[in-house]
Amino acid sequence: MNKPPCMVWLPADHRLLGDHGHQMPFLLLGDKYARAVKVGAQAQPVMFPLASAEQIDELLGLVDGVMLTGSPSNVHPSHFDESVADPSLPLDTERDQLTLALVRACVREAVPLLGICRGFQEINVALGGTLHQRVHEVPGLMDHREPKGRPPDEQYAPRHPVTLVAGSELAQWAGGTQVQVNSLHGQGINRLADGLQAMAHAPDGLVEAFAVKGARAFAYAMQWHPEWRCWDNPFYAAIFDAFGHACRQRRSQRLQAHDLARATPV
Predict the structure, then answer these.
(1) Structural domain boundaries, residue 189
(2) Against a cut of 0.70, is the pTM above it?
(3) Is-catalytic flag, 154?
């Protein structure tokens, strides 16, 4: 009997699509995120449409990892005690309700967790940190937004260097402490949550990657987008390879526990 595939849960975005005045709700997942899991982590991306926070424990028992993707939407600032600074920017409160609880459950249950862009921000907020809603307006910080209206290859091109903590796993994956990354975000870390350890900084000092302190499984997140053609970038490929390895370890543990339960007399 073949083993079940290694599966990674990617929560969906909630968005209204269609002509103005005739919009319908859709649940969306970007191809580049699913493809990075499939190719880079060698795992099967899965979605649980309309999953609620109350279902997290039972659904986590079916998967081997969680990846929180980037999104056009932002985490609602009420989750870090602020009002909305720019009403024109999209929000996704339904995603917030699931993912903020999902972060805490992954850390508690030692489920491999990878956060990218919005996912990076979700982890920080879920664990008690705060965000700059408009990084480009903060004195001393750079404009980290992508060039609007340009082709994807230009938007996702390397934009600035980041400095990685020497001796960290990120530095090992990068093969050094300096690496060029893309940059496509308007929000960013203000106060890093106490349970997180900064692993990379932009030239302006903004936190660009972190690890969950004391995590019992893979638990990393980055503000840049390593999913973008990860197979063409050795650093990005190493991130997904490490994440996939952690997910396969969890799958082995799940299967062993399942086999033990079946073999144990009731």
Answers:
(1) 7-15+24-260
(2) yes
(3) no
